């Protein structure tokens, strides 16, 4: 979700699978009439197609897109921030989310899942969500390693997180970015900046599953997200 908060003077850039929904739903009950929250909540999802059609605003806008929509002068008036996470954890989150969604939508029915697979191989999707890259990658593979290979090599998964935060000249457009691994630092900073006390919520929880990495998978992710490893000082694990 994208948040443009006039009452607290901030813009939140929502990078997929980086805790944005949890932050939005934690903050939403504190919003004022002049705060714009797009996506994630029931109300935000209602607003999204309207603002997307009229202004190009949606729940996963990049900072560069928002700057162009608001204009540089207005954009610079806001405190701008985002949450990021370790690239390998990002991939793991996409896998767990895809697995959970497929199980829930199919009611854990293998016959339904097999029908979805067969139709996807024919170039057809029974439901819209089956066209989403991570979902397609999950259904058309049989292991986490195959998922990583397909999703990354066929560009079926979100690209670098830095692409959400940099200008077309690779200059940072956010004042702060916070690692999801150290979320307490974000909440402390957010409280000081906004003079608010908010109870953090955890949303979009996925079903637990044990995942293992080999060197080939690490190399693929390292190459795909090289700018993230460098910009956010992450290390392979």
From the structure above, extract its key features.
alpha/beta, 2 domains, five-stranded mixed sheet, 11 helices, globular
List strands and helices in order, with pairings:
Elements: E1 2-5, E2 10-13, H1 20-27, E3 35-38, H2 42-55, H3 63-70, H4 72-76, E4 79-84, H5 87-105, H6 110-121, H7 133-139, H8 144-153, E5 176-179, H9 183-194, H10 215-224, H11 226-231
Helix pairs in contact: 5-7, 7-8, 8-10
Q: Whole-Å distance between the termini?
A: 29 Å
Structural class: alpha/beta
Q: Strand share of the residues?
A: 5-15%
Strand element count: 5
Share of residues in helices: 40-55%
> Would you identify the regions where 5 or more consecutive residues have pLDDT less than 50?
none
Strand order of the largest sheet: 3-1-2-4-5
Largest sheet: 5 strands, mixed
Radius of gyration: 19 Å
- What series of H and E elements makes up the topology? EEHEHHHEHHHHEHHH
Domain count: the total is: 2
Count of individual helical segments: 11
Shape: globular
The residue-averaged pLDDT reads 94
């Amino acid at each position: 979700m994208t948040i443009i908060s006039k009452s607290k003077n901030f813009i939140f850039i929502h990078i997929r699978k980086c805790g944005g929904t949890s932050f939005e739903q934690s903050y939403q009950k504190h919003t004022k009439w002049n705060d714009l929250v797009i996506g994630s909540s029931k109300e935000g999802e209602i607003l999204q197609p309207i603002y997307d059609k009229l202004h190009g605003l949606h729940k996963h806008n990049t900072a560069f897109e928002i700057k162009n929509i608001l204009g540089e002068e207005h954009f610079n008036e806001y405190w701008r921030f985002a949450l990021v996470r370790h690239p390998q954890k990002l991939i793991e989150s996409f896998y767990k989310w895809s697995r959970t969604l497929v199980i829930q939508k199919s009611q854990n029915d293998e016959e339904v899942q097999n029908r979805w697979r067969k139709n996807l191989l024919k170039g057809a999707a029974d439901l819209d969500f089956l066209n989403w890259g991570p979902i397609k990658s999950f259904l058309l593979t049989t292991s986490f390693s195959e998922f990583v290979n397909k999703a990354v090599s066929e560009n079926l998964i979100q690209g670098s997180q830095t692409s959400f935060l940099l200008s077309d000249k690779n200059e940072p457009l956010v004042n702060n970015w916070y690692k999801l691994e150290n979320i307490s630092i974000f909440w402390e900073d957010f409280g000081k900046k906004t003079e608010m006390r908010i109870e953090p919520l955890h949303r979009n929880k996925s079903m637990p599953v044990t995942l293992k990495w080999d060197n080939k998978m690490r190399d693929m992710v390292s190459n795909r997200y090289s700018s993230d490893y460098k910009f956010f000082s992450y290390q392979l694990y």
